[in-house]
Amino acid sequence: MLPDGGNPHPVRLVRPTAAPLSALAQVGRRVFFDATLSSSGRLSCASCHSPVHAYGPPGERAVMSGGATLTREGLRAVPSLRYLERQPNFSIGPDDATDDERAKPLVPADASAAGLVPQGGLFWDGRTDTLQSQALEPLLNPFEMDGGSVERVAAKLRHAPYAGALVQLFGTGVLRSPRALVGEALSAVSRFQIEDPSFHPYASKYDAWLEGKARFTPAEARGFRLFNEPKGANCAGCHVDRPTPDGLPPLFTDHQYEALGVPRNRALAINRDPAFFDLGLCGPVRRDLRAEPRFCGMFVTPSLRNVATRRAFFHNGFYRTLRGAVDFYVYRPATIDDLPPRYRANVDVTDPPFGRPPGAAPVLTPADERDLIAFLRTLTDER
Questions:
Q1: CA 168 – CA 187 distance, rounded (Å)
Q2: How far apart are CA 208 and CA 160, in angstroms?
Q3: What is residue 350's three-state secondary structure?
Q4: Sign (positive or negative) of CA dihedral 139, 314, 292, 334
Q5: Per DSSP, what are the bridge partners of residue 299?
Q6: Element (H, E) at 73
Q7: Alpha carbons 193 and 83: distance in angstroms, whole number
Q8: 146: how many CB neighbours lie within 10 A of its CB?
Q9: Phi/psi at 256 (nearest 5 deg)?
Q10: What angle (nearest 5°) sits at the alpha carbon of residue 204, between those of residues 27 and 379?
Q11: How confident is the model at residue 1 (pLDDT cuts 50, 70, 90)?
């Protein structure tokens, strides 16, 4: 790195080409913002995935609430919908798999082999692979938009202001089949997410720095070094910060899953039941990996892009500030209270910054944490 904070090896990043939205994507935009599809009439996709919050949750709450009266509290913190256009399908494969290898699904039974790790997919537990199927779940979930059923949602779509546009795109027959109507409406949402540049702008200061168009402040430069220190903070070990060989901007995730041992969020209504545990890949939402106890407690590594805009961190929203989230890695509590004892061996205790011997100094000083956070703020997209 140059002394003045510039990038000594600038690159040319390959971004998605901006173009006018297709007719299908324009319909998808209207569906995305349509609150009438919810039982309350007040909750749309955009209510929880706010465009002005990097398509993440607005407000200060750990989780969002939905249902007919907007009082049913969700299970997990709302992830961002930004930067999902390159998300690989869920698979269980080699730790050093290429994107092409990750696209080849492996049966869960293969997970018993050494060196195979879960990776890819959407949601915190990777249970779906397409943006279309991802959009369907909150639409019907009683804790979210609470659409009730495909038939009920289809009845609303038939009377939506954009129903005529759906007929123009898919023919009058689409109105006769509830499943087809809802499916095509959600395919339009997925096209909106793929085509609209606001879902993948790659417009942060860090992107500009990679291209040699911006300079780090001294604090940002120090934070960048800490982020990439393998025996220190080691953030880049999971949150990959280098462009791909063909020039695609980094996504700040390796798409893999980790059991981190995040503290139990006792503020969540569902956690008032001491027998309830959110096991991530092993349930309660995902069901096909329940027979794989080695994956219990694992959640996907999220992208760190726009992380400084968030107010709920990790799957359960336990930490409410970016400093608190960084503190977790530096001072992780010794007691793991949100996993049954039989699954606690899954928690990562070896990869830096974890695995430090008892009595060792923290991996980061308070000044280091401030510098690291200064760097993380460079990942915020310019509006």
A1: 15
A2: 42
A3: coil
A4: negative
A5: 258
A6: strand 72-73
A7: 9
A8: 22
A9: -95, 175
A10: 105
A11: low
Looking at residue 3, what is its pLDDT? 64
Question: At residue 275, does pLDDT exceed 80?
Answer: yes
Alpha-carbon distance of 93 to 101, in angstroms, equals 8
Classified as helix, coil or strand, 173 is helix
Closest listed residue to residue 305, CA positions, set 351, 240, 260: 240
Question: How far is C-alpha 208 from the geometric centre of its chain's CA atoms?
Answer: 23
- Beta-bridged to residue 204, according to DSSP, are 381
148-181 pLDDT, tens digit each: 999 999 999 999 999 999 999 999 999 999 999 9
**Interior/surface letters 310-340, b for 16+ CB within 10 angstroms, e for the rest:** bbbbbbbbbbbebeebbbbbbebeeebebbe
SS3 94: strand
List the structure tokens of 335.
């007691």
Report the SS3 class of residue 298: strand
Residue 118 pairs in a beta bridge with 92
Q: What is the CA radius of gyration of the chain?
A: 21
